[in-house]
Design brief:
7-stranded antiparallel β-sheet; globular; 21% helix
């Protein structure tokens, strides 16, 4: 696989060298924001840059950049996480839903624009400021416009050809992260401004939606007579919201089961180690082991048939060289990342994993051996005579799913010497 091969070459083998050195429901949208109050839990809207602002003034509209068709608005609702947004359905068409129902992508091919909504757990308890700092590094603009509040922040960035608007909401006391990202041509900024402003204002979270969807699914499973429970509200007042259609009575797709993998039994070897350690963690039950040329690395991948191709989890074991501390190994790893094209370190934090001192790194990678931007999480775990590298990644568009797998692996990881 091109993705995994490139990643192994660029990431896992690099790590070894360093250690050796020492279902969702569209529904009619509510009336425009000017005609109704915004949801109670929605932050103040962030306005995308106007065409006269410094970020767009230098880009004259393209000759064919006429008005944007945005007359038929619908409301997208994610029944798993309760996220909703108004969007112009005559402009954007929905992509197929991902297997884990963590969000949805939408594309406007004619206008060369797209947006995505997805949610994920804040697996490592990052603060709003830490999440924002990581996003600033990943958005390809050294000085994006930044707006923030108690439970949200927004970034508006401009590249040579695009405007990127990213809005992030935190819910459940910061335990859940909900993201909206809209990308459109810089040359069409004036036409997109009112469309993006309305979309951003409508982006909100209703925590009761997953409960209602689950109840609808249970009612359908029981064959209960009558109508299913009423659909979730978008958060606007009942007086201003037209009656939406019923919530689909189907449970959201998710990983059906997890299984405990003993990585040593799966082939993980460590030259010179006379003991037989047990290194295990839980992975999605349907993930498969891939062949690796190195005996001290085991690799598991998501199956292509399940729409999870490109997702992987790798575990590597390296003997500790004399004088190599955890901090020194991490510093040398980061130094090599900085010196190599394509890598961008986004964040670092200390942690306890399997009751051992560890460091967590998050980074992006793009290069000639990987056509997609990759989002990666790496845990470096100090197990005394051995350093373990646990690496999970995916194309950036599927990073929410990869984060969920990584969090489960880290939570269930056991190392018994």
């Amino acid at each position: 696989m091109l993705l995994v091969g490139g990643l192994v070459a660029a990431g896992l083998i690099l790590a070894a060298a360093l250690v050796a050195l020492g279902p969702e429901t569209p529904k009619p949208a509510s009336p425009p924001a000017s005609a109704s109050a915004p949801p109670a839990n929605a932050p103040p809207p962030a306005t995308p840059p106007a065409p006269s602002s410094p970020t767009t003034a230098d880009a004259a509209p393209a000759a064919n950049a006429g008005p944007i068709a945005a007359s038929r608005w619908e409301h997208y609702v994610n029944t798993r996480y309760g996220v909703g947004i108004d969007y112009p359905a005559d402009l954007f068409a929905a992509d197929p839903p991902p297997p884990d129902n963590a969000g949805r992508g939408f594309e406007a091919k004619a206008a060369k624009a797209r947006f995505s909504v997805y949610s994920h757990a804040n697996a490592f308890g990052a603060s709003r400021e830490e999440l924002e700092a990581e996003d600033v590094l990943s958005i390809d603009d050294d000085q994006p416009e930044k707006l923030s509040g108690d439970n949200w922040y927004a970034l508006i960035a401009t590249t040579d050809s695009e405007v990127i608007v990213r809005r992030v909401l935190l819910s459940e006391g910061g335990a859940m992260v909900h993201r909206l990202e809209i990308t459109y041509p810089k040359s069409s900024a004036k036409a997109f401004q009112p469309v993006v402003a309305r979309m951003m204002e409508s982006f909100s979270v209703d925590p009761s939606i997953p409960e209602k969807a689950a109840e609808a699914a249970r009612a359908a499973g029981r064959g209960a007579p009558g109508s299913p429970p009423p659909p979730p509200s978008s958060g606007r007042t009942a007086q201003s919201q037209p009656p939406p259609p019923q919530v689909a009575a189907a449970p959201p797709p998710t990983f059906a089961s997890w299984r405990t993998i003993d990585f040593v039994s799966a082939g993980l070897q460590l030259a010179g180690n006379r003991s037989e350690p047990r290194v295990s963690a839980q992975l999605p039950a349907h993930w498969v082991k891939a062949d690796m040329p190195e005996p001290n690395v085991v690799l598991f991948e998501g199956p292509e048939a399940g729409g999870e191709d490109g997702l992987f989890l790798a575990v590597r074991a390296e003997p500790r060289e004399p004088g190599t501390t955890l901090a020194r190994a991490v510093d040398r790893l980061k130094a090599h990342f900085r010196d190599r094209d394509g890598f961008r370190l986004l964040g670092e934090r200390n942690a306890k994993i399997a009751e051992r001192s560890s460091v967590l790194l998050s980074l992006h990678y793009s290069g000639t051996d990987s056509p997609d931007l990759l989002a990666e999480r790496v845990a470096i775990i100090d197990a005394g005579k051995v350093l373990y590298f646990v690496q999970c990644g995916a194309p950036a568009a599927r990073s929410a799913t990869a984060d969920r797998v990584f969090a489960r692996v880290i939570e269930t990881l056991t190392i018994e010497e």
